[in-house]
Amino acid sequence: MPLINNSMILISLIAVPYTSTLFPYLTSISINGLFKHPIWERYNHLKAYKSDSCPISRKNIEEFDRKLFHVIDDYYSKDIREIAISCPGAVDTKKGIIYNGGSFPFQHNVNLKKKLADHYNIDVAIENDGRCAALAELWLGSIKGKQDAVVLVLGSGVGGGIILNGKIRHGGNLLSGELSFVMSGMSKETNEATFVGFEGSAVEFLVEIYLFPNQNIIFNYML
To answer: Parallel, antiparallel, or unpaired: how do β-strands 123-128 and 80-87 relate?
Structure first.
């Protein structure tokens, strides 16, 4: 089975140290199978990296929240100015509500923005992970300075973001650029649909090549 689509949540703690008002420190907490939290200094310098050894529950929101707050608390200080969240699912950036949490289904209809804002009494921003990747490329990456572009994210699922007139597009249903929900097939026996995000996993594709090097499996992943 391919890995489920869109399986990472990234939490960034943005702080401006009293010694400098020019460059913020940035702590990013990546939530996939484990909590991973690199510490960035001056935007593009990796200062340190940690990874917890305990897998994260994909079904229990109480356990997830307890672990999330514990990891954030390890880095939280009075210097923190904002928390930024990159997560799977259709995200209402204004309200902060996540719809369809990808491999974290318990995040459906959860206002993660409000939950963190109330807990830490601080400003919180939230966005879909594919669109965050597009914004990162627009800011410092391969499409810097471009007005119109499409960014594709190939990982445990298939995501993306669309830039038009220099701005990220969300779409009427908050799914602009979200390729995970593009239908890739339909079973004649069950009438059940299959989707790109569940069958187009680049990570799972590489795993199968490693495990079964003598088998021709590439056609299983052609869209």
So the answer is: parallel
| Residues 96 and 174: beta-carbon distance below 8 Å | no
> Among 63, 156, 58, which Cα is nearest to 106's?
58
Of residues 202, 203, 195, the one with CA closest to residue 178 = 195
Q: What is the pLDDT of residues 159-169, one digit of tens each?
A: 899 999 999 99
- pLDDT value for 26: 61
Place of tokens 């950036």: 93
* Structural domains of the chain ordered from first start: 9-128 (3.30.420.40), 132-221 (3.30.420.40)
pTM of the model: 0.79
- pLDDT score, position 159: 85
Q: Which residues of 28-65 are buried (b: 16+ CB within 10 A; e: fewer)?
A: bbbbbeebbbebbeeeeeeeeeeeeeeebebeeeeebb
Q: What whole-number distance in Å separates Cα of residue 25 and Cα of residue 213?
A: 43
CA distance 35 to 157: 18
